[in-house]
Specification:
Blueprint: H1 2-24, H2 26-33, H3 45-67, H4 71-96, H5 100-127, H6 135-154, H7 159-175, H8 177-188
Helix pairs in contact: 1-3, 1-6, 3-5, 4-5
């Protein structure tokens, strides 16, 4: 079980880093790949990129529902996510514009992952006698990712501030790399096969 958790934590951290890079450089990416008329799409990139993290996370939890053939729970989670998405978009897009769709997508995938996590726990207690993941580690990875993502988003108004934030993050990561690697190794605890 420790091997599964270690791979999951490492994968979540990798997905978080890749998506944070996308969020940090979204204004440049959008300006390169989209015409000037789509510049406002820059503001939608962060919540969509954050949604990718939760899409990956829900799959880590849903695998237990598939394996133990509790597919009705997957249907329930899907219906909850879909209904919430339609309701939020129906209610908020006319008021706030199409940009809010990125945030409703994020909210729905957070809910979707949370529901799958909630469903996974009793299945694993019943079938395995234990939980595969440490909730505190999952919350730490997720919270750090969301805070960093919204910090980069808040710096979109100022190129200088955003690049300063990127520089500070890079320098702190470089200075604290040994400490960060130790923490990652403790979280991952991947054992070598015999």
């Amino acid at each position: 079980m420790a091997d599964i958790a270690g791979v999951a934590y490492g994968s979540l951290i990798l997905i978080a880093i890749v998506n944070l890079l996308l969020i940090a450089f979204a204004p440049e990416i959008v300006s390169i790949f989209a015409p000037r008329a789509y510049a406002k799409a820059t503001w939608i990139v962060p919540p969509i990129a954050m949604s990718v993290f939760f899409i990956f996370a829900f799959d880590l939890f849903a695998k237990f529902e598939f394996y133990y053939e509790r597919t009705s729970l997957i249907m329930v989670a899907s219906v909850i996510g879909a209904v919430l998405n339609v309701a939020l978009n129906y209610w908020l897009i006319p008021i706030l514009g199409y940009e809010v769709a990125g945030y409703t997508t994020l909210i729905c995938y957070v809910m979707y992952a949370a529901v799958h996590y909630w469903f996974m726990n009793p299945i694993c207690r019943e079938e395995l006698g234990t939980l595969p993941y440490n909730r505190k580690i999952l919350v730490l990875i997720t919270f750090t990712f969301l805070v960093a993502g919204f910090l980069f988003l808040s710096a979109y108004h100022s190129v200088v501030l955003r690049y300063l934030l990127i520089l500070i993050t890079g320098v702190v990561g470089l200075i604290k790399r040994d400490y960060l690697m130790t923490i990652m190794k403790q979280m991952i605890r991947v054992r070598k096969p015999n």
